[in-house]
Structure prediction request, 654 residues.
Amino acid sequence: MKSKQVENYLGKEGILSFNLEGFEFRRQQMDMAVAVEEAFGKANHLIVEAGTGTGKSLAYLIPAILWAVENNKKVVISTYTKTLQHQILNHDIPFLRDKLGIEFRYALCMGNENYLSLRRLKRSAQAGLFTHADEENQWEGIFNWAGETETGFRSDLPFEVLPQVWEEVGRQKDLCLGKNCETHSSCFYFKARKKWFGAHLLIVNHHLFFANVANAGAVLPTFDAVVFDEAQNLEETATQFLGLEISNSSLIYFLDRLHNPRTKRGLLTRIDHDLVPHIRKLVMAARQAADVFFNQLLEEYGKNDRVLRFYKPPALDNVLYAPLEILREALKSLEGGLGTEEDRVDVSSASERCFEFNNALSAILNQNMRGYVYWLEIVPRKRFHRFVLRGVPIHVAEELHAQVFDKIDRIVMTSATLTTSKGFEFIKERIGYKPDEELSLEAPFDYNNQALLYIPDDLPEPGDVVETYVKGIANRCRELVEACGGRTFILFTSYALLNQIYEKLDGLQFPLIRQGEMPTIQMIKKFKQEPSVIFGTNSFWQGVDIPGDALQSVIITKLPFDVPKEPLTEARIEELRRQQIEPFQHYQIPRAIIQLKQGFGRLIRKKTDKGVVSILDSRMRRRGYGKQFIESLPSCRVVNQLEEVREFIVTSRL
Prediction:
């Protein structure tokens, strides 16, 4: 590839400057594009922090397209949030296809469970699976939609489908008949996969990327390079994907789908075989064992909402193992005697699920996965208590290095928030990444004039009396919201504080939109319609983009430290102490800095934006580490008086 080919497109005299009205040359974007181009050309690993407004998606998409087309290769673009994925698919790629003058092919790759299965839809019509009117109505809606949709994507449905309905009609890998399926030629999933194999760019999310890793590369076509955007989330995604989980709700749901004695429905009511009556009894026995096992948990650990780490294998009798193993063997016997491949696949899948449940439960109870942390979550529900047993790896760096970084020649790791204390050491150590090149680019914004950072020193601290703390934060939020005329995000680190502040601000003259009461897309749509206040937790700290006047104030109620007693955080802290590394300085502060930078980044999205970020955590002023947080943020004026905030807002509007 010719050196700096990207300059022909992104340079001051480039194709985009002539073809695009209002195109702004950005030095940072150009620097990043050149670095990505070189990484692809030299088969290097690169890490780039590119501040908000750099235009980083175009800075990696253009060199990725040029390299893939010129060399007939495939590049994976992996994101964490749906928002960024939608931006790339619906805005960036159509724009580049229109303006670049290069023919290239791309495909959105989704996990198989996101696709409608036409065979299972047809089979569910014959089975009479649904007992509630709303389920029946949704099924009819899906049936009608199936004749119109081109993709079969669950997310393209015109309504929010119930999980129990999609469970019966969505594609499941272990229930697929492949070429033997009567609907194979019209199958949404296989039509999509055909596009994948012909594409230069594969757009995926981090979860699907790790599904491909876990399945030895069987999920995605072979690819030659990968760009990880929103790379600050890689460690958590990998941790989650490598983890184990078993819950009473998932187990009972599985057994009900085999045979529900109350509704007389399930797989074993559709199959005609002499073994079926016996296997139904085995399902009942497994159900009774599940009741006994989860009642043990209830008696041992109570019914309060809590998370309880198992420091050693719990003294619980695994009464589930034998009934599930007997059921598995009986299903294997039944599979061999069935006449249709459809029935054999359904029964084989159920048998495999019994094996998976037993494997996960044994591994968690015996704690036989080295380097894992184990815990129990108790979640009170109206009808029953949900118990979830989990086990996840404490450290994923070695696994990531061996399974990903060592195996792929060309990797670009990027985000607006990857550095702490101006360097990449923290993120590199956490994920085991050893890049050939590092690049840190500041945002092309004039933060000194566009943004004000308000850090009061007169508020109670998070460790103070709860009522005093909540009242102090709520009153200051009210004053800030009124000063900005709504147009505010209030970001929280927990739902508990979110709900407490929400209740205290009820009655404000602006619409209050609380996370969880409607889908995120609807929340944002409502927020843009009139001056409003969004109350959000984790998902609103990142991936949400609202440029313009709709958002002029971001309030961060509390520094986003992980809860130190949360099992995974606690285990990581212990691991660092064993290595004689001070965890607060080397793990907890850097983690919180990256999250804080994400929250700050919600405010200024373009050169005409102006607004205020307020951090209502007095520890920023009263603790030595406060300076580290301030220094990690873009350089802007810092004030501690509310009157200065009001003056800034008035001046900004003038």
